[in-house]
Amino acid sequence: PHSGILRFTFPKNQKSRLQIDLARRVGGTSLRQTVKVVGDNTVEGTIECTPAGGGWGYGQGKVNYTLYYNAVFSKPLTSYGVWSATLPDGPYQEIISTPPFAEACRNAETLPGCREKEGQHLGFYTEFPTEEGEVVLLKAGISFVSIAGARANLAAEIPDNDFDKVHQQSRAAWAKAIGCMTVEGGTKEQQTAFYTALYHWRIDPRIFSDLNGDYPGGDGKVHPKKDFTKRTIFSGWDVYRSAFPLMTLVAPEIANDMIRSQIELAEQTKEHTFERWELFNAYSGCMIGNPMVSVISDAYLKGISRYDVAKAYEYAVNTCDRIGPGKLGYDPANLSNTTEYALHHWNLAKLAEAMGKDDDAKTYLQRSAGYKQLFDPEAPWTYDKAGKDSRPEWKGWFRTKDKNGQWDPWTGLTSEKGAVEATIYQQGWFVPHDIPGLIDLLGGKNVFVEKLTDLFERAPDFAKFSSVTGHNEVRTPYYNHANEPCHLIPFLFNRAGAPWLTQKWVRKIHQAYGVGPNGLCGDEDVGQMSAWFILAASGLHQACPGDLRFEIFSPLFDKVTLRLDPEYSKGGTFTITAQNNSPENCYVQSATLNGKPLNRCWITYQEITAGGTLDFVLGASPNKSWGVGD
User: What is the pLDDT of residues 297-310, one digit of tens each?
Assistant: First the structure.
């Protein structure tokens, strides 16, 4: 939706008031606004948001857009005005929370009866007498294109002043959006957490176009409607792991729209590369890697390809060639960059292979092995720099090198040096595209499972993740669900022949999700944290974008139904059930797929989207013979 309505209920008063802060901006302030009274009950204008006023990354995200608004009151504007503040000198992203800034706002000039104003820090107010319980409505439409667009959006979506009707329509729209999945069983709190997660996940990527399809392009021009919905906010480093794989199952059209939007952005800006964290057409440069390459590869291999595939490939190649480890094959002093780029090169190889570009596929597949250059088979298994906490019977782990190929000093497994939102102990497990290769580096499946178990057993109790120190994020150098590099790790047991440990630890991680202010063990990260829970609570999760294998394990709920998109899927629904499900019964005893025995701990994307039923029988003890077959 492009509009909304507010309902205010007043007491009996000779001078009731509504006021609107037109300079308010998430993470900063607008530095130029306009307001104009139109007719007897409407105001409209603009709110310019530039990097100078802060915003995303305190202005370092380069976000630059104008919001156009049209606001209509249910009472005539008979007594109204504008306030206007003169702000102290910038940089504004640094002074927004300072006393001088607050003092400037307090000392704003009030301009009664002002019908039109442009300024640095504006607000609008209207005053009117009210009877006891009198209702006043304020409805507003917005646009990122024009004031005319804001007017048209509001007129189409909320043509009258029926608040209850809009409320019902809004609830119906959200019910449809999150109705792509339903669950039965579990506790009331778990169901609330699940549906809340669906709501969070569906917020972004959001629509960036007007109702008529017009949208602001990356070239600063207005572009007319095309055969897709222009979307924005791609938190790539976060969402390629779970949020987009979930989208390919139950909301593939949104994934297609976002890919199409990013292709157009790369073309319109003449960057001809994909941004890793796009916001309102800005190339913010936030985080690391080339995640859109993996999103496109994964979608294309799943048959989601209603976009210019040739351009997508061209820009993916440009992205990986221009933004990556270069000739070294690794990023000096940065393990996280190296493993991320390796995955995205592998996905480019998969995309090239699917498009018949065999030479390219070979090139990028070779590059995807670059992570191995940062594995030191002689690295001591010491957790701290001093080596007081160690496992002397083990050795071999990842560490950083300089540009000359010399190892950087060893600072322990729990060091954050060379890792992004992770420790090297956490980041080293991130080789989703070559898990067999990782298993070999670590000494085979048995040793791999022992070392992986160590990572989990050293982590805090997952039930405390939302309560320790009264904050919803626990910092731990071991398994840390609060940050994305760990989100793959629980599923590695499946790949190492110990699926009962994936079942065990995923169930424990579920305890980190709940309801209330601390219901998430970390930032939402534009739906990624919730998407992980949605998939994991359903008993399936894709470990690696571009690999269409979904790991399966015991679901949290007795029954989960995925409603598939008939435009992209052969089946209507895919249902997952769990007999004997309980907190104690987290281990899979047996499984059937469409009534036939299934003795592997994975299914394919094609098997899911064909529709059908996956049935588990659960028990309190591991069945170590289930799920180890091919």
Answer: 999 999 999 999 99
